[in-house]
Amino acid sequence: MKSLQIETASLSYPVFIGGGIRKNADELLSSLDLPMTKLLLITDEEVDKRYGEELLNLLESKWPVKKVAVPSGEQAKSIDMFMKLQTEAIEFHLDRSSCILALGGGVVGDLAGFVASTFMRGIDYVQFPTTLLAHDSAVGGKVAINHPLGKNLIGAFHQPKAVVYDTECLGTLPEKEMRSGLAEVIKHAFIHDEAFLHELLKIKSIDAITNEQLNDMVYKGISIKSAIVSQDEREAGIRAYLNFGHTLGHAVEAEYGYGKITHGDAVALGMQFALFVSEKVLNCPLDRRQITSWLKQLGYPGEVKLDTSTEALISRMLNDKKTRGGIIQFVLLDRIGSVRLHSFTAKEIERWLNMWRLEGGE
Ligand SMILES: NC(=O)c1ccc[n+]([C@@H]2O[C@H](COP(=O)([O-])OP(=O)(O)OC[C@H]3O[C@@H](n4cnc5c(N)ncnc54)[C@H](O)[C@@H]3O)[C@@H](O)[C@H]2O)c1
Ligand SMILES: [Zn+2]
């Protein structure tokens, strides 16, 4: 098992990473020295089938625990599910010294974390991530649910007390979800670590990724995220770097309709566009064609669907939480590991997008 310590202005907490460590979850939780009068274990139905009962049985020997499984998928990040979980917490008599455990991917982490941030004005929670994407979402303390008018619009900053990342759980993850999570790993490499990107470029297919590579990806991805978040917990400055590939990515996700494309596939498209703009505006000396063909080989899309209009994407970008006064902020690279924030008008982005799309995404 490896461990990392995340240091933020508000809190410091450990991340434990290793294959099979869920079987020691009781000891790891005890080592945190939290009051834990009761535990509410929140998971989703898919994850519950595989890991829910096992974790419940283990923890029940030490604490009063109630397990609740929400339907799997993005729709669980709703105000109705939030209320249901608050009701479960009240009926189970959780108190201010109780703890919520989030066993699952980013959906469960964001939802359970938001419940923890608001129940009795905020109680402890611990993340047990089970997807590769959750190396990103489980660290950093952003928790949220969706509003019908937009994703993650209702949320809080609430850091977990610990992250227990059993990488063995990734063994049951569908390929599509693995690819989605890998996009965030690739993002972390692009913005911070050239050597790591070169390691990743050796991966020839998703199903060829070894356990050793997975452990390494999770460890390095979390290290990079934590280095950024520890300097900027509330997104006043460099935390924006984590948005690399996300300005267009979020627009594509919203325009296709949530669930029609995975977050990672959309981010992979966004990264390809950001690299195109980086080349044009900052002369970023990257072999963009090599990157594009590698991403395609891994199964990522290389271009935005033809029936999605550039105007619609621009309008989505203008509505993004990070857009201010009609100026769209883009995260660019002047080389791998060296990030530049750049502001564009909608007109400028439209021009770049049209040019990139004419190239067929290349
Ligand atoms: N808080 C943050 O900083 C942050 C960052 C990035 C993304 N997010 C959020 O994360 C969410 C996406 O997370 P995700 O991609 O993990 O999706 P997810 O939680 O929906 O998981 C994807 C699918 O995999 C299944 N699954 C999970 N673990 C499994 C396992 N080990 N074996 C088999 N199946 C498993 C789930 O049931 C689900 O169907 C989005 O809502 C996004 O907004 C948050
Ligand atoms: Zn993301």
TrEMBL record:
<feature type="binding site">
    <location>
        <position position="142"/>
    </location>
    <ligand>
        <name>NAD(+)</name>
    </ligand>
</feature>
<feature type="binding site">
    <location>
        <position position="263"/>
    </location>
    <ligand>
        <name>Zn(2+)</name>
    </ligand>
</feature>
<dbReference type="Pfam" id="PF24621">
    <property type="entry name" value="DHQS_C"/>
</dbReference>
<dbReference type="InterPro" id="IPR056179">
    <property type="entry name" value="DHQS_C"/>
</dbReference>
<feature type="binding site">
    <location>
        <position position="184"/>
    </location>
    <ligand>
        <name>Zn(2+)</name>
    </ligand>
</feature>
<dbReference type="InterPro" id="IPR050071">
    <property type="entry name" value="Dehydroquinate_synthase"/>
</dbReference>
<dbReference type="InterPro" id="IPR030960">
    <property type="entry name" value="DHQS/DOIS_N"/>
</dbReference>
<feature type="binding site">
    <location>
        <position position="151"/>
    </location>
    <ligand>
        <name>NAD(+)</name>
    </ligand>
</feature>
<dbReference type="InterPro" id="IPR030963">
    <property type="entry name" value="DHQ_synth_fam"/>
</dbReference>
<feature type="binding site">
    <location>
        <begin position="72"/>
        <end position="77"/>
    </location>
    <ligand>
        <name>NAD(+)</name>
    </ligand>
</feature>
<feature type="binding site">
    <location>
        <position position="246"/>
    </location>
    <ligand>
        <name>Zn(2+)</name>
    </ligand>
</feature>
<feature type="binding site">
    <location>
        <begin position="106"/>
        <end position="110"/>
    </location>
    <ligand>
        <name>NAD(+)</name>
    </ligand>
</feature>
<feature type="domain" description="3-dehydroquinate synthase N-terminal">
    <location>
        <begin position="68"/>
        <end position="179"/>
    </location>
</feature>
<keyword id="KW-0057">Aromatic amino acid biosynthesis</keyword>
<feature type="binding site">
    <location>
        <begin position="130"/>
        <end position="131"/>
    </location>
    <ligand>
        <name>NAD(+)</name>
    </ligand>
</feature>
<keyword id="KW-0479">Metal-binding</keyword>
<keyword id="KW-0520">NAD</keyword>
<keyword id="KW-0862">Zinc</keyword>
<protein>
    <recommendedName>
        <fullName>3-dehydroquinate synthase</fullName>
        <ecNumber>4.2.3.4</ecNumber>
    </recommendedName>
</protein>
<keyword id="KW-0963">Cytoplasm</keyword>
<dbReference type="InterPro" id="IPR016037">
    <property type="entry name" value="DHQ_synth_AroB"/>
</dbReference>
<dbReference type="GO" id="GO:0003856">
    <property type="term" value="F:3-dehydroquinate synthase activity"/>
</dbReference>
<comment type="pathway">
    <text>Metabolic intermediate biosynthesis; chorismate biosynthesis; chorismate from D-erythrose 4-phosphate and phosphoenolpyruvate: step 2/7.</text>
</comment>
<keyword id="KW-0028">Amino-acid biosynthesis</keyword>
<comment type="function">
    <text>Catalyzes the conversion of 3-deoxy-D-arabino-heptulosonate 7-phosphate (DAHP) to dehydroquinate (DHQ).</text>
</comment>
<keyword id="KW-0170">Cobalt</keyword>
<keyword id="KW-0456">Lyase</keyword>
<feature type="domain" description="3-dehydroquinate synthase C-terminal">
    <location>
        <begin position="181"/>
        <end position="323"/>
    </location>
</feature>
<keyword id="KW-0547">Nucleotide-binding</keyword>
<comment type="similarity">
    <text>Belongs to the sugar phosphate cyclases superfamily. Dehydroquinate synthase family.</text>
</comment>
<dbReference type="Pfam" id="PF01761">
    <property type="entry name" value="DHQ_synthase"/>
</dbReference>
<feature type="binding site">
    <location>
        <begin position="169"/>
        <end position="172"/>
    </location>
    <ligand>
        <name>NAD(+)</name>
    </ligand>
</feature>
